[in-house]
Design brief:
Helix content: 40-55%
Largest sheet: 7 strands, mixed
Radius of gyration: 21 Å
Shape: globular
Order of helices and strands: EHEEEEEHEHEHEEEHHHHHHHHHH
Structural class: alpha/beta
Distance between the termini: 26 Å
Strand order of the largest sheet: 5-2-1-6-7-11-10
Strand content: 5-15%
Length: about 325
């Protein structure tokens, strides 16, 4: 693994048939130097079985700058989605991914890249997600995989998979967030003009808009804005529903249809995101961070951090505070 002063090493796995869009997403997240804006340095390498340019759809090609042997040095391996989900991936790619997983190197697959990991046997007995239109195909061709439909991205045993297109961006930003903090991920998201935080548990598919649904969405957007502006206050579904002029049941139904998640789950993720920013940017005591973000107590905040981030607020601050010496002090 890289030290704190070394760039994080990212291996993009290339072979004929990978999607140009996913290659572009990976390159935009980890291949652009944003150190002047406080983002840590990354060392992104395009790896393939050999030095020959890799053909992509639409007359494009990608020239590797490292062989698959470089995966042994990587801190993270990212596999793009595929144009054809039936054609087997090259044997050297599958072997390299198996060896990397055996070394406990984190591996992430975007969209149909889950098929590549499944071909390598890395998803056998594990939960995985892919584009909602490919879930049946993945289940049929790889019955040992526990395919999940209602998620944007999933993590199981050091392996990440994501749903289609935009969810791949969500996963890449989430991986930056968990490794380098919310501020670094938000800076990258701003430069990409994309949403900085969507939880992986959101549904892939939200209902098609109708004139009534559009009006409801506007109302719910105002309610969400109010909740964010008053995050320190206690909020209940009943209270938020009253502000929207709806019954709690109707509010919960419309909220899920509009956002892909429940009101309380959305509120928790927003409170966690706000707490992350305060822990990174300020020296506020943990009880004050908990109060300002609506958790009420440090104990409650610690429980949610453990559940959603697999860490504690104190350890998170030590890892990501903008002045590490002061965070330790």
């Amino acid at each position: 693994m890289a030290t704190t002063s070394d760039p994080t090493r990212i291996a993009l796995v290339c072979f004929p048939g990978v999607r140009a869009f996913d290659v572009s997403v990976i390159t935009e997240v980890w291949g652009v130097d944003r150190t002047d804006r406080g983002v840590p340095p990354f060392d992104l390498r395009r790896t393939a079985a050999g030095p020959t340019p890799v053909a992509l759809r639409g007359g494009l090609s990608l020239t590797p700058d490292r062989t698959l042997a470089w995966l042994a040095r990587a801190d993270l391996i990212v596999v793009p989605g595929l144009d054809d989900h039936v054609t087997p991936a090259p044997a050297p790619v599958l072997g390299a991914l198996r060896r990397a997983h055996a070394r406990a190197t984190p591996i992430a697959a975007l969209c149909g890249g889950a098929f590549t990991l499944a071909q390598a046997g890395l998803l056998d007995g594990r939960q995985a997600v892919t584009h909602w239109n490919l879930t049946d195909l993945l289940s049929t061709r790889h019955p040992k995989v526990k395919v999940t439909q209602d998620a944007l991205f999933l993590h199981d045993d050091n392996i990440w998979t994501s749903a289609g297109t935009a969810a791949g961006i969500d996963l890449c930003l989430h991986l930056v967030r968990t490794t380098h903090g919310a501020e670094a991920a938000a800076t990258i998201a701003r430069s990409m003009v994309t949403a900085p935080f969507r939880t992986g548990t959101q549904a892939q598919f939200i209902e098609h808009p109708t004139p009534r649904a559009d009006r409801d969405a506007d109302t719910l957007a105002a309610v969400r804005a109010h909740a964010l502006a008053h995050l320190a206050e206690p909020h209940t579904v009943a209270g938020l529903a009253a502000r929207a002029g709806m019954s709690p049941r109707s509010f919960a139904r419309h909220f899920q249809a509009t956002t892909g998640t429940t009101p309380l789950r959305w509120l928790i993720t927003q409170r966690i995101a706000a707490a992350q920013k305060l822990l990174e940017r300020t020296d506020l005591p943990l009880p004050e961070v908990a109060r300002r973000t609506g958790f009420g107590s440090e104990v409650t905040m610690r429980q949610h951090f453990a559940t959603h981030l697999a860490t504690s607020p104190r350890d998170y601050r030590l890892a990501f505070h903008q002045d590490p010496a002061r965070a330790r002090g």
